[in-house]
Amino acid sequence: MDFGCSEVKVWKEALSAYQSRIQTLSLTKNKPNLISLDEFYCNQLPSILRQRNPNPFLTTSELSSLMQWKLTRGKWRPRLLDFVSSLDDAVVKSASEKAFQSLPDVSEAVAELTVLKGVGPATASAVLAAFSPHLTPFMSDEAMEAALGNSKDYSLKQYLKFVDKLQMKAKELSSESDSFTPSDVERALWSYAVGKSSSPQSNQDPKTKPIKSSKRKRKN
User: Compositional bias (Polar residues) at which positions (predicted)?
Assistant: First the structure.
């Protein structure tokens, strides 16, 4: 599935396969916690954040679980988990509260979060995506590779380009009957890439061009 593909059906199929990809990855890559971590990140955390009105915030424990999800779904880097797990709760609460209040200014929101040790733009994007999936997608390697052709640049500048591309794609795919968020686009791209790498033949869509690069390093 090429990023330029405009067939809504193809994108919906990739997105609908997301959960099965998570389950397959947890089994084939020996990541038994991935299913529960993904449930926390995709369903529980957004609900928790929405309930904290009028000033939503994140706790150190929640940030630690989010980091576990990010590293388990991508490349495991234990030092990052150690860094965020040792952060003072008041500091995490303050930084996340300021970041959420900064939206829709994505640049400012990322800047507020990256003052935290162990939190770069990629982790900041995961925090923001949990709070505002309609605005800010997670900066996954697979989606970065598909949208920008590069999954090695984790700068704020690159993330802002990524946000623009996925917002435009979500708008393109949405209609009265179908609604896509930038986060939906990211998960569809991730799902397709993971499915293709695990079973190349069954995931080759004859209607779309294949993603050119098959070498996709998960380096979050």
Answer: 196-205
